[in-house]
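Handout, section 3.2

Students often ask what a structure token actually looks like in practice. Rather than define it abstractly, here is a full record for 5-hydroxytryptamine receptor 3A. The first block is the sequence as you would receive it.
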Amino acid sequence: PTLRRLSQHLLAHYQKGTRPVRDWRTTTNVAIDLMVYAILSVDEKNQVLTTYIWYRQHWTDEFLRWDPARFDNLTQISLPVESIWVPDILINEFVDVGKSPHVPYVYVSHHGEVQNLKPIQVMTACSLDIYNFPFDVQNCSLTFTSWLHHIRDLNLSLWRQPELVKFDRSVFMNQGEWELLYVLSCFQEFSVKSSDSYAEMKFYVVIRRRPLFYTVSLLLPSIFLMVMDIVGFYLPPNSGERVSFKITLLLGYSVFLIIVSDTLPATAVGTPLIGIYFVVCMALLVISLTETILIVRLVHKQDLQPHVPEWVKRLLLERATVLLCIRDTKKFSPSRTQSSDISRQVEHNDSTAKLNPYGCEAPGECEGTAGARPVAALAEGSLPTHDVLREISAIRRFLEKREEFRDVAREWLQVGYVLDVLLFRAYLAAVLAYSITLGTLWSVWRDA
């Protein structure tokens, strides 16, 4: 009965359409407080942050006062929100109405202090910077202000101390993708075109993404593929396995990019650094494959190719080997002296055979044999002997030509190996420089 009697006493002549002050020059001070309960979603594409907050308001209503002695020492009562005056405080960044539960009552004390506590699902616009995804930190603001009353009628203040609001994570559910770092608060006045000023209370919600999932699913597989690409350079360039290995890596990386394309945030503001990283890694794989194709083409010279030019020998086989510290440079070199000796020996035997068709070692033996044999036998046996010698000469020329082709192939193979080492070290230097650049950018961003 006391609660019912007090409620009727307070609301009997109450006018909820008027600001609750006895003197219109008195400013109504509304103290507000905010506690972040959960980060529901971060939409990078639409630049929308969805949070669930516990919001509290506190103000003084001069028409909701009573003497507790007249009402059984009752000092506090709950009244319907629809029955009393409530400040029109909104969030400027609102983009959609959230699914917030309706709290129909407020607490009123005997001094006229009104406390309005309610949970709100807030969908606000936020300028999201995804350049450092997945190591990004987002700073989104929630601006509370009166949409109608200027600062002379309705002023805002902070319910608690800023230090208590900043590090208050007592109700935050921190098991999701985002981690709450702190909540900053700031009061300021706002005016449009020299009109009356409005009071604003800004809360900056600073959150950080947990990067473990993206590191395991995005960065580590990409690093493993790049390491395998570098290891693939140790395959011999004169075998066809390196090209197929590089093509397999390139196809695998393409499939990997297709899979992670849905994971990367897509915005019109800019491209995240990890997207640039993937593109550059893809370009490095293409460069590696191109280099492999050139080296394989170089070491697999076909027939009728010229010898290695002298300037190439001086540049690659002499200077480059010293620069690259390649000591064993003669293992692919052809034995030109041995081939020349064999050719001169075969040519000498051929000329001797033409002068001495019977194969005599001494001229005296040939004279005795010529005197004993008839002239007819000499005439009959000379024709087959010349045919045999002609065939042997053809075989010798064929073998010399094939040996020359092998010498050319060995020369190009040696050039290909030296050039492969040179390009591999240049590629390795490019990869290291790229890694150091990314690490430096990330360190600078983190320190900033």
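Discussion prompt for tutorial groups: The chain has two domains: 2-209, 211-328+393-447. How would you have guessed this from the sequence alone?
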